[in-house]
Design a protein that fits this description.
heterodimer; A: 272 residues; alpha/beta; 6-stranded mixed β-sheet; 4-stranded antiparallel β-sheet; 9 helices; 10 strands; 33% helix; B: 220 residues; mainly alpha; MetI-like fold; 8 helices; flat; ATP-binding (chain A); transport (chain A); membrane (chain A); ABC_ATPase_HisP-typ (chain A)
Chain lengths: 272, 220
């Protein structure tokens, strides 16, 4: 690591990424990416598969270690590249505790109930007392509309319910930012709405969010900024509605032509 | 025509019982020690450091790919010459059998750990767990469940392998029955009885393991 410095910066951006580079072998996945997310901002990352958007998201909480550039979330900044040492295990863990992540395939812990899944972070990472963790976890489950599913194991939940538990699990860490990695891509179409509804409410409560998604209509509705990536570079960036309704770049237009861009969001059937 | 006479074995019952006690006790020791070695071996092969991985792999393959009988003899007769370490037959055979079993255990444990989807430890990391915490809280509880049938199976093999320690004059069931066979001139009856004794202990155990496997499969 470099500087996990505590410079209380004057600018208001919550996430600041500068010159981020990442290669897997000879495959250059991210080519000098820069990105800012304002406090309370919601940024949607869209682009064809292989464009690097998931890798970019995973670089924000350092699940993927960048080759170069810098990542700042809140007051913690890491620089990468020649002459910098990789962050040690403890520093990384502490940093990740402040960023929540939701995965495409939920990654719930199958040996724990929904409640235990949500309690796990507070107990193991935040060293919270069991009773306090349980109160917190029940509140988070209630928030995603799953209070009555607390004692069920993930195997008995639907995809949409699993993903809502996963969101509650991330929120129980009371993170500064939330990262969503194609959170609805593995869901049956009729279950997408209930997860999007939870994400939409989270955004309206002022959570800083970065969302990798294929739900263009959702991005248009909920995100305030939109970034279109292709082949490891940012092709186009701007206010979500403007980019979606009126894309400037040919590549953006070509990509967006595959989607219904407007219209109602999928209904949240199991709305809490 | 051979006249079977099992009645004669009755007078050796204390000898057999004594040997059986040694066999069972010995099994417990080499299963526990073997699991400890296996744990070290498994984490060694999964280490971030190349040197540690190489050392662990070398040990595992050395014990996995040579006959246990040779290892027993080697530990007792060759180690004192090479390293100047004198060991009693019991220590030498406990060590050899534990390391031999440990090499198989470590492959089972390693396989169990890597069979858990990497998304699990990733989810732990995303919550802010250190790799150690994610291993203890998330990966191992799931992996152990998958390992248990294979570990039980290997332990059954360990139990049978104890019969080899008789070559170093450790007084286990097989050794004592050799004594009885020489004394009574009834080797056929004696060894048949030994086989029955092993089976009588192992068959209920294998049934338990199979039941466990079925329960595990339901839980998946």
């Amino acid at each position: 690591m470099s500087e996990a410095s505590n410079n209380t910066s004057k600018n208001t951006s919550k996430i600041e990424i500068r010159g981020l580079r990442k290669s897997f072998g000879s495959n250059e996945v991210l080519k000098t990416i820069s990105l800012d997310v304002a406090k309370g901002g919601v940024v949607a990352l869209i682009g064809p598969s292989g464009s690097g958007k998931s890798t970019l998201l995973r670089c924000i909480n350092l699940l993927v270690t960048p080759d170069g550039g810098s990542v700042r979330v809140g007051d913690t900044r890491f620089a990468f590249g020649a002459g910098t040492k990789l962050p040690n295990v403890k520093t990384l863990a502490k940093f990740r505790a402040t960023t929540g992540m939701v995965f495409q395939h939920f990654n719930l812990f199958p040996h724990m109930t929904a409640l235990q899944n949500v309690m796990e972070g507070p107990i193991t990472v935040r060293r919270m007392a069991r009773a306090d963790a349980e109160t917190l976890a029940r509140a988070q489950l209630a928030k995603v509309g799953l209070a009555e599913k607390a004692d069920q194991y993930p195997a008995t939940l639907s995809g949409g319910q699993k993903q809502r538990v996963a969101i509650a699990r991330a929120l129980a860490m009371e993170p500064d930012v939330m990262l969503f990695d194609e959170a609805t891509s593995a869901l049956d179409p009729e279950l997408v709405g209930e997860v999007l509804a939870v994400m939409q409410r989270l955004a309206s409560e002022g959570m800083t969010m970065v969302i990798v998604t294929h739900e263009i209509a959702f991005a248009r509705e909920v995100a305030d900024r939109l970034i279109f990536m292709r082949d490891g570079i940012v092709v186009e960036e701007g206010p979500a509605r403007q980019v979606i309704d009126n894309p400037q770049e040919a590549a953006t237009r070509a990509f967006l032509s595959h989607f219904h861009r407007t219209g109602a969001l999928p209904p949240a059937n199991a709305a809490p | 025509m051979y006249q079977w006479d099992f009645g004669i074995l009755w007078s050796y019952r204390w000898l057999f019982l004594n040997g059986l006690g040694v066999t069972v006790g010995f099994t417990v020791v080499i299963v526990v020690l073997g699991l400890v070695f296996g744990l070290f071996g498994a984490f060694g092969t999964l280490s971030r450091f190349r040197a540690v991985r190489l050392i662990a792999l070398t040990f595992i393959e050395a014990f996995r790919c040579t006959p246990i009988l040779v290892q027993l003899i080697w530990f007792y007769y060759a180690l004192p010459i090479l390293a100047g370490v004198e060991m009693t037959p019991i220590t030498a055979s406990a060590l050899a059998l534990s390391l031999y079993g440990g090499s198989f255990y470590s492959e089972i444990i390693r396989g169990g750990i890597v069979s858990i989807d990497s998304g699990q430890s990733e989810a732990g990391a995303a919550l802010g767990m250190t790799p150690g915490q994610a291993m203890r809280r998330i990966v191992l509880p799931q992996a152990i469940k998958r390992m248990i049938p294979a570990l039980m199976n290997q332990s059954i093999i360990q139990f049978k392998n104890t019969s080899l320690v008789s070559v170093l004059a450790v007084p286990d069931l097989v050794y004592q029955s050799q004594v009885a066979a020489h004394d009574s001139y009834r080797p056929l009856e004696t060894y048949t009885a030994v086989a029955v004794a092993y089976a009588a202990i192992l068959i209920p155990l294998t049934i338990l393991v199979r039941r466990g496997e079925k329960r595990m499969a339901v839980g998946e």
